[in-house]
Amino acid sequence: MEILPVKLCAQGSISLAGPPASTGEATLTDLAVDLACMYRLCDEWGYNEGDSSNFTIAVKTDDGSMLFFLIKHGVQWQDVTVRDIILVNAAGDVVHDWGCGSNEACPSSAHFDVIGFHIRRAIHERLGANGSVVLHTHMPTATTMSVMRTENGGLVFPIHQASCRFHDNVVYDEKFSGLACGPEEGYAEGNRVADVLTGGGATSRVRAVFLRNHGPMIVGRNVWEALDDLYYLHRACLFQAEALKTAGGDMSRLAPLKDDIALATSRQSDHVRSLKGWKHISSHRTRLLKAIPSIADVC
């Protein structure tokens, strides 16, 4: 059941259905299943944010336009299946609903988080292939860091190899001005966040951003790199929070690595990050689908 000719990624598949070197094997349904599994995993990991729609996968059609995978509004993360996934265009029109099964004529009345979608749409459009996947959560430890002052622990310090993964790969957005109140405001906010990610340039210079007083966001080229980054960002923040707790909040008792060591460790991580990330996340996908086959059932 494929509805449109789509280029999943110029460099190859962005789906967990195909390993990093594969080209063209993944389908739209594969990506819809990926998104369902991502929500299930993040619920298992404690990143749940009620029924909010905070993840988006973007693909390009053959005519160059973009389509976006979203979850329907009102679905608990632990319950998501492929039937809760929809595909929308840049205008926010639903062009496919996996809840309709194989009936392509089925009209979708699916509701989704319109404002959140337009925030992430702007980021997808600005970052291109480097922003094929955008993940935003309020996972507790990383979000806690986002509400702390910089001098009191509101930065990812290079105190562990998980932290070094993000050395020179994270930025901090210090401007929180409330909630966007409509699609246009959402799109403008997404462009503002994209400016932070790119430093005002054309492509993303980092993979993570902390939105001060809000929470973290990850951008990635494919499903496994983005979700693996989200997992390890949480781990880095958890280790830092536990260290500060043990130190009674005394920053001077942390043992940060020297900048050259942290940078070298980051570069070493980059060499193996994609393949290790695929093995990590695809193994979870396999486990979930084996335990709950209905996640991928479109009928």
UniProtKB/TrEMBL annotation:
* InterPro entries listed in its UniProt record: Aldolase-II_Adducin_sf, Aldolase_II/adducin_N, Aldolase_II/adducin_N_sf
Q: Which GO terms describe its cellular component?
A: cytoskeleton
Family matches, as Pfam families: Aldolase_II
The Class II aldolase/adducin N-terminal domain sits at 33-241
In alphabetical order, the GO MF annotations are:
actin filament binding
Identify this protein by name: Class II aldolase/adducin N-terminal domain-containing protein
Q: Which organism is it from?
A: Vitrella brassicaformis
